[in-house]
Amino acid sequence: MKTVVLLFHPNYAQSRVNKTLAQALDDDIEVRNMYALYPDGKIDVATEKKVMEAADRVVLQFPIMWYSSPALLKQWEDEVLEYGWAYGENGDALHGKELVLAVSPGANNYGRDNFVKYTVTELLRPFQATSRLIGMTYKKPFITIGASTISDDDLTQQASKYNEYLHQAQLATLGDFE
C-alpha cells in the first residue's frame, strides 16, 4: 500500500510535535512538506493530482489551529479537489483511496466535559464530509492531544505509534456518529 503524508505546518522549523511525527516514519512512506514546497502559496495542482492518484492512502498531517486546519491546507483543498476530477461528473480519481488525518491540537481540553465542549473528532467533521464527497474512505484519525505540553518520552512513544498506525493494512473506519 502506497502511503503519502501531506504535511501542512506553517512553521515546520519550529515544530516539535509534527516534525517528530514526520521524522519517525519509515522511508517507504513519502512525506511532503507542503509549506516548504509552496512557500509562495502557488500550488502545482497537476503535481498534487499525480501524487494523489499514485497513492492508496493519503494522510493529511497538521496542527489544529483555531479549531481548524492551517490556511494552506484549505487552499490546497480548494484548488486540487476540483469538480470533474475529485467529485461531480467524471470526478472519481480518488474513489476507493483512504484518507487519514494526523492532527495535533495544542491543548488537552477537548471533550464534552472540558473547556472546548467538543471532541477533536467532532471538529474534524468537515474533512469526513469532504472524504465522502470525493469518494475516499475516511479512516480513524491519529490524534496527538496536548501537543504544547506533551513530554519528550510521550512524544517519542506517540511517534512510534504513528509509524505503526500508518503501516497497518487495515485501519479502522470512523463511523458517521463516532
Please characterize this protein's 3D structure.
This protein is of the alpha/beta class and 178 residues long. It has a single domain (3-167), classed as Rossmann fold (3-Layer(aba) Sandwich). Helices cover 34% and strands 16% of the residues. The protein contains seven helices and six strands. Strands 1, 2, 3, 4, 5 and 6 form a six-stranded parallel β-sheet that branches. Helix 4 (71-80) links the parallel strand 3 and strand 4. The mean pLDDT is 93.
**Secondary structure category:** alpha/beta
CATH architecture: 3-Layer(aba) Sandwich
Q: What's the helix-strand series?
A: EHEHHEHEHHEEH
For the largest beta-sheet, the strand count, sense and barrel status come to: 6 strands, parallel
Number of helices: 7
Q: Helix proportion of residues, in percent? A: 25-40%
Taking Cα atoms only, what radius of gyration do you get, to the nearest Å? 16 Å
Shape: globular
Percent of residues in beta strands? 15-25%
Mean pLDDT, to the nearest integer, reads 93
Q: What name does the CATH topology carry?
A: Rossmann fold
Query: Termini separation (Å)?
Result: 26 Å
Highest CATH level, the class: Alpha Beta
* Total E-strand runs: 6
How many domains? The number is 1
CATH evolutionary superfamily = Flavodoxin domain
Q: Which residue ranges are poorly predicted, with pLDDT under 50 across at least 5 consecutive positions?
A: none
